[in-house]
Structure formats: C-alpha cells, structure tokens
Amino acid sequence: MRQIPSQASWCARRPLWACRIRKVSTVPGMAPDYQLKVMTTCYPYCITFQGNVESPKYIIRLLYQPEYESDVGHYHGCTSYLGFLERSYFCDTCNKGFDHDDFRNHPCEGRRCKACKQTECGTKPHEPTLHCSACNRHFYSQNCLALHRGKNICMTLVRCGNCCKQFQPDPQQLHRCYFGKCSNCKEYVDLREHKCYIQPIPEQEDSPKRKTKAKIKKHLKINPEASVYEEPSIFVYADYEAMISEDGTHLPICVCAQTSENNTSYTFYGDDCSKQFLEFLTNLTEDQYKEPREVICIFHNLKGYDSIFIQHQLVIEGRKFDVMIPNGTKMISLEAGKITFKDSMAFLPMTLSAFTDTFGLTELKKGFFPHKFHTQENRSYVGPLPEVSYYDPEECRVRKKEEFEVWYREEAAKQHPFDLKEELLAYCHSDVALLKAGCHKFIQEFKSIAGFNPMEKCVTIAAACNRYWRRKHLPLDLIAIEPSSGWRGARMNHSKASLEWLMWQEYNTGSRIQHARNGGEYRIPVGPTSYFVDGYDAQTRTVYEFHGCLYHGCRTCYTNRKQIPFCSNGLTVKALRQQTSQKIQKLRGKGNRVVEIWGCEWEKEKKETTAITEFLKDLDIVPPLNPREGFYGGRTGAACLYHKVNEEEREEIRYIDVTSEYPYVNKYGTYPVGHPDIYLEPENQDPRSYFGLMTVDITPPADLYNPVLPYRHKIGNSYKLTFPLCRKCVEIETQKEHMLERDYHCPHSDEERMLRGTWCTPEIHKAIEKGYRLVRIHEVWDFPQRRKGLFQPYVDTWLKIKQESGGYPNWVRTDAQKEKYIHCYEEKEGIRLDPTKIVKNPGRKATAKLMLNSFWGKFGQQNNKSKTKQCTQPYELLDLLDDPLFTVTDIRILNSEVIEVSYKRDKEDPYKGSNTNIFIAAFTTCLARLKLYESLEKLGDRVLYYDTDSVLYTWKPGQTEIELGDYLGDMTNELDNGDFIVEFISAGAKNYGYQTKNGKVVCKVKGFSLNVRGAKQLNYDIIRQNILDEVLHPLDEQRKTLVVNPTHFVRNPTLKKIKTETQTKSYQLVFDKRVLDHSHGFKSYPYGYSRLDAQDLENMDLLLL
C-alpha cells in the first residue's frame, strides 16, 4: 500500500508533458480500494479525471494547474476540496461543492447508500459482504443491513439468485428469469430466445393530433374558428448567399426564406444575417396562440454548404445541437431545440436547376449570378454588367453554358445598370421560390399516395420509402430484426479469439477438445437447467471457458459496473459477471475441472508470448459468419480497355441496360424471411439443401471468362470487389505496381486457388453450375421460410403511378392502340393501368421513380453510425474517452467553452436497427448481379464493359444478340434508334467513353467533374490517348494527367467555415480488377484464368535458368 501515496506524490511533482491523464489513471489500478480524482485549478473548477472504482475506501485528491506561458503545468496534492473551493460540503458522487442549505437539499443519488438506499448509512468498505436471505442482496455493515429492513427496502428491491437481475417485485407480474419487455414489439418475452420482426407503423401516428380540452377552450376565446387539432410543423425554405474574402473564405451575407404558411419572402441581409435568421426561426417555434411547434427548415445541399453557416452561428450563441446525423464531415440533418434543419437533396438528389424540368415548373428557373464579383469591395456596386468571367461559365455543363451565353447577350444589350445587392436578393429569392415549389410538388405527390409528409417524418428518401412500406405493405411477423444478443442468440456465441485459445489449449495439452467448430459446444446439465461450454475434454472432464470481456462483465475492461450493454438483455455488467461466476461454481460443483481465461488476458498473452504468435501464424481458423460480409455491391468493371469496330465485318458495339433492375428484383425475387437456423460445420454438405447465407471453401474453374462469385481483396489502401478464379493470384499479382507486370496464367494448386468467403446461396448454386467445386461448407444460416414477390405490392403501387404519369408511348395514337398498350402491360406486369390517369405528370413520375429506386437500400443500412456530442464540461469528454462501449473518432475544439466529439458504439455491442434486415439487402444485390450475369453468360468474351445493370458488348452478323423489351427486368437499348458505338475506351470501373456512328461522344469518369473547364483538361481524346500510350508505349512510371479545379469547396468542421481553394487531381489509368493481356491487345482476363500444367511449369523453370 505504500506505493499509492508515493505514486500520487510523484504525479504531483511531474509536469504536464511527463504526466498525462493516462499515466495518472494507472494509480487506481495499483490498489482497488483507492480512487484518484483530479480537479482543475481554473474556473469552473471541475473534476477532469476520476478513477472508476465502485466503492473506494480512500480517495486521493489532486489539483491540476494547466500550462500557461512558460509554465508547462503541474499536478498538486490536495488534502481537501472543501478548503480549495471554500465550501462547507463536497459531494464525491456529483463532484460539486455546496454550502449548508444547498447540500441538505441537493438531489444527488450519491448521498444515498447503493445497498440500503439511505443517506445515514455512513462509511462503506470496498464490497458489500453481508447477505440478506430475504432479498438475496449484500450489504456493507450491520447498520446497512438493519436500515434496509427498517425502511422496507428489503420488500421492494430483490435480487434473483438464478439470473442475478435486481428488480422491484410486482404482484401483478411475477419475476421470470431473462424475461423483459421487447423494445420493438413491446411484448413481455424471454429476451434470450425472443425472435422479433419489423413492426408496422400505425396510420394514426401520422394523423393530426387533437388538442387538449384546455387548449381548445383557450384558443376558442381568441379565435372562435380555431381548429381542434394541433398545428402541424411549419416549413421554412431558405438559401444562403455569401461573399468571397481574399483568402477564399465564404462570408454569409444574405439569407432568403419563405414559409409554408404563405408566399411572403423574408430577407436577412448583412454580416449578422445568420443571427437574424435564427431569431426568425426561434420566433416561429410558437404559433399564434403561443403554443410550441416544430420548425422544419429546408436547404438544398444543406450538408455540403449551408449547414456550416448555421453551425457557426449556433456555436457563437452557445446553443447545442441536440441531434446530428453525421455523414463524414457533412451533416444531412441537425436539430437545435424546436428547429430541425434538413437537406432537400437527401430526398431529391438533383441540382436545384433540375427542379424545373423534373416537376414541370415552367414558370420558375434558376438564374445566373456573378459570384466571383461578389466581394467586400463590390458590396455596394452599381454599374455596368460584370464581365463574363465573374459568372464563371466554365463551371457549367455545355448546355448550361450555352444558355448563359444567350442570357448574357440579352442582358448586355439592355444596358441596364447592374445593382449587385438588388441582383443578389433577386437571385436568392428566385432560388428559394424554386426550392419551395419543387419540394411542395414532391410532398403533394408523395402525400397523396403515402398519407404523410416525408420531409416532416423522415430525413432521407430511403427512410420515407421504408416508412410508407411499413404503413401500407408490411406483412406481419415476417421480416426479422437482429435480436439484442445478436443473430446467434445469447447462449451459443463464439468468437475467433475463443477458437484461437481453445486450439492453443488443445495443442499444449495434446487432448481433443470439443468446441463450436469441432463437434459443437458441449452441453452439461446442472439441476433443472443446463449450460453450453466453450470447450470440453471428455477424458479428463475438463471444461474450457473463454470469457469475452463484454459478454461476461470483465472488471478490468468495464469498470462502470452499472452499464447495461445492448447484448446483455437488460443486465448490468456487474450482473453479467455474477452470472459467469455462478456458472463456474455450478460446473465445478458437478465435479468438472474448469480452465478459464478472460478475453483481455488472452490478447495480452498473444502479444507477450512468442510461441503463441508462431502457433497462430499457421492456424487456419474459420471466423464466425458475419452476414454483412455476404453483402456485396454491384458488378462494375472493364473487360477490354480499347476496341474499335471492324467496319468490313459490319461489327457494332451495343449498349444495353436492365430496365429498373432493383425494382425488378424486389418484385420477382425470392427472399429469405423469418429468423435463420444456424449450422456450424454441418454434416449435410449438399448446398442445395439450404437457402440463405453460407461460409464456404470453393475452388473456381480455370477457364471461366466471366466468373460468378465476388471476392473482396485489399488493393492498395482500399478493399475492391474482384471476381477472380484464384485467390493466390489476386493476392500476388495486385501487389505489382504496374498493370503490365501482372500475369493471369495461374501456377497454383487447388488449395491455393480456393476462395473462402460468405455468399448468398443463389450465387453459390450458380457458381457450381458454372464449374466451381465446393470443398467445404463451414457455416450455414438457413431460412426455412422464403417468399417470392415479397415486395410486389409496394413495387406495383409505384410502378403503376410511374407508368401512368409518363403518358402513352410515342407509338400509341389510336384508341385501339391505347387498349392494346393497357392490355399488354397488364398481361406482362399484372398491373391494370387506369386510362383516365395516363397523362404526363413530370412531378408525379419523378416521385414514383425515386420511390422505386430508393426502397431497398434502407435494409442494408449500417446502424452503428457516428454520433456527435458537444461537451461543455471536461468530465463529459473524459466519460466518452474512458467508456469502453464507445470509440471516439474525432475531437474538435470549437472555442474555449465547447468541444465537439464524434464517437461510435463499440463494434462488439453496436446499435441494432428496428427497420433493417441485412439478409434482404444481401439478397437484393446478389439477385441483381445474377440478373446481369444472364447477359454476361450469353456474351462470353464479347463483353467490353459492365456496370451494375448495363453491358457494352460487340456484335457481328450471325452472333448471339441480347433480346430487348419494354418491361421490368427486360434489356433496353441505351443508344438512339439506329445508332451504335464505333469506338470504346475504358480505364477501369466507372471510367469509360465511346463514340457512336452518328457522331455522339460520351465520356464519364467518377471523381472528376467534366464540366466545361474539366472537359478541356480531361476528355475522350485525352483518355483514349492515355490508354493507347500506357499499353503500347509504357514508361517506367505511369503517365498522369493533372486536372485543376479553382473552385473547390473545402469545409473546416472545427472552425465551422468553408473556403474556395484550388484543387489539383491526378488522373491515370487504374486497372486492377482483372489482368490485361497486353501481348494480344487490350483484352483482359480474370486473375487465375489460365491454369498452367506440369509441362508449362517445367518450361518456365528452364527459362529462368
């Protein structure tokens, strides 16, 4: 014990640079009876560090003097915080000083004993040890025990001896171990076994809320015609305009707005426009009767631009953002009190100028403004029309630039004086009017079908789709959600770390240990119940238990014993530890020898023991199936870098596309429903016996030009989706820097070629059909239930609206043709179109199209997203940093009063959604890839390029053609009638271009804006030449094309500012998903395509001699 005071005095003598919090925090670990506290000597004199000791005997108090000028900062010992704070009392639970009256009345729970719940209990030892047989709880002393009996605490708070849960007895509902209320379906169930489902949303949730009688009477006195229903949220549509300072910083100068109540335009102009605007919004949070209401403020591109100005002003005013939904450094929504800011682009992913055509708003149009001219010097400018360069037409697309040039000539001809402020306000108000009109049209069309306002209830179009589906089309108890203890349940969970330890024990002892991957977990009956154990040696009756720190309540890792992880079914980490100890005692009581280890101890042993490290290097462990690893994206890439048609052979390049691929899959695909049955190393190795997800070892064939199975592999700094035929080839060849160094010829054995991964069963079945050989099924998540047409009602609803709103096709002219069109559509799709509604309605059609294409993605949403918290007290930050259930991803010091912290839930205990299902998402993309593969399979090596739902391929007279059609899932021609491609180029995925017979040139490069300025630096001709040079005339280093963008927006999330800076990007040929056969032109092959036989390998060896 002598070490403790000496360690404390050492810390007090050390400067800040030598003694950080992490060093100070080691003090309590030296003796669990001691708790260390550190208080800052600066206002507001708060605790900056507190050791997590549940019931300390002693408290070591330090004062920390921060660094100032030449003083680097120090820790000082403190005998009493009372004297330092000049207070009469100090509460060690809420860490605040109080005077006499304040302390007597302060409501802190820390004044009450945690056992007997009384304030007069007195000093307590480290752990309560006295047992009460009546309530099965432990107490600190005889006085503590007597107090809890005298105050009837014994009758109102008990602990279950079986499940270790502490609860208040309820005569109406007797305690049942592990039972509780499901947070999703609200039923009282066994939380370990409960299998829950996505729940429908009652329509009354979106119905107008009726006011209370008191409110109705109050409002009727003021206005006899007042409604008896609560006022709905008021919408505000707004737009920022900013000046550009000399260093490129955007300084907000103007906000224009309109509300949903009327068409009045509001203008907030000046350097304090943000302050004016927030005051305006705050005033709107009360209606005419002084009743509170929600204000929803809509900006277009809030996340990319306007939100930075809002956040900056909120920080200045010291107002916290109550809820934020981060997307990287951007935010698609944030709340401040009763005000919610949302991004219309999250619902309508298009430019504001596109609203005009999309919603048929012919009377409204986005104008032009010389943003580069809008500086502090020109703020009050009145004079001739600014020069063309100030409008930066190079930033526009070609068509928009042409439109600008016409407009500019007309304006210049008028010779009217140009008033910058007046033009700015007119431009801004025009944008707001267009924004409001487009959003109103979208809301109107959506609400007429769905029955609710999407921008009021949701923050994205995907969430709106999901909400509508749950209201109107969700089948009851069919689509599963992940249980709180995970898909595997609470009883039979294992990890890769536990398998490592068990195999190490097996290696050391020479015994055969039965475990999850070796015969399954062994079950030992103990009285009326039974336990599954991680490992069991039947010969020696030895039980092996690997305690995952989270699942078993490790004292070292989870020092806050009151924490309740999501996976614990409502139990604290303390109760989890008690359960674990109880289980071990019972197993030993049955005569078993028990060997146990904690997860953190095993990690430490691995780092410190060389023998373990060497053992694990050669260990082939199949990790537990993670369903998210079976969720792959679309198939995208090039099979050929360059191709020019042979005119003499009448060759053509065709470009086809699947009509509404994902809606087609949603309507006609077969999906897994219900909860999966999980099998580890199943005896039945027939893949046709299962439907769901499987982790398998599978060997691809050596000669399949278009492989079936996707495979994630790290190439450079990121994981890419490849379709290889050999695992070893893709690992070795992708390490070679230059694409011409790579070889697709495969010298590897079947074992080296073998892929191990998790895939949906339909894709595995297709792979086997194409020559893949299944080696071993390691784990299966099989769904006894499946449903075809699961989302047909949803798709049919919006498909009908989309089809009717598009009007009749061009070939339909007579009544007979109209009837034929309606009949054929019903015959093909099972949808009867209403002839009275077949009228062109751009807004309605756009809404329906969004609802069809944005539906399925919500099921695959990653629920464990980052959250953001603003801390005004040091302990708030330290609590997050010290909490093992959270991982801090970023810390931003906004000012001297506020720190902004981004954090995520720990990956072992993530948030679990109530409206997501990873299996639906995985099957959607799987079935979509198989739909595309139907065409790839027919075309073989004639394929040039593919991208999720489209294919470019060569065709000559007499060769197989892909049949085209007009219905869902049919292939359609992406080119104009009679036209075809004569030259094609591609430098990789999402990077291609072509020229057609009729002279049309198309060039698309992901990550590069090919506006007028961009297209001068990077275009079809430049990319074409780059490809030809790299393949035909390679250099030691790849050629690069620099693309300069002088108007790149850079957001500073710490300073809450946005600047315009010059950005220079480097473009080069990146082709690493397949291997180029440069010796025979521009064609490529999958990794491991050509298998070398024994003679080939011998010849290669001779060449190397």
Description:
This protein is an alpha+beta fold and 1105 residues long. It has 32 helices and 52 strands. The strands form 18 sheets. The protein has a seven-stranded mixed beta sheet, with helices on both faces. The longest helix is centred in the middle third of the chain and has 31 residues, at 420-450. It is globular and about 100 Å long. Mean pLDDT is 88; it is low at 1-23. It catalyses: DNA(n) + a 2'-deoxyribonucleoside 5'-triphosphate = DNA(n+1) + diphosphate. GO terms for molecular function: DNA binding; DNA-directed DNA polymerase activity; nucleotide binding. Belongs to the DNA polymerase type-B family.
List the helices and strands and how they pair.
Blueprint: H1 3-13, H2 21-24, H3 26-29, E1 34-40, E2 47-50, E3 58-65, E4 74-77, H4 81-85, E5 89-91, E6 96-98, H5 100-105, E7 130-132, E8 137-139, H6 142-150, H7 153-156, E9 158-159, E10 166-167, E11 179-181, E12 188-190, H8 213-222, E13 234-244, E14 250-259, E15 265-269, H9 273-284, E16 295-299, H10 302-316, E17 323-327, E18 330-336, E19 339-343, H11 355-358, E20 382-383, H12 398-414, E21 418-419, H13 420-450, H14 454-457, H15 461-472, H16 496-509, E22 522-526, E23 529-533, E24 535-537, E25 542-547, H17 549-552, H18 573-589, E26 593-598, H19 599-608, H20 610-617, E27 636-638, E28 642-644, E29 652-658, H21 661-668, E30 670-673, E31 677-680, E32 692-699, E33 711-715, E34 718-722, H22 727-733, E35 745-746, H23 750-753, E36 755-760, H24 761-769, E37 773-782, E38 785-788, H25 792-805, H26 815-829, H27 842-853, E39 867-871, H28 874-882, E40 886-893, E41 899-905, H29 918-939, E42 943-947, E43 950-955, E44 971-973, E45 981-988, E46 991-996, E47 1001-1005, H30 1012-1017, H31 1020-1032, E48 1041-1052, E49 1057-1067, ...
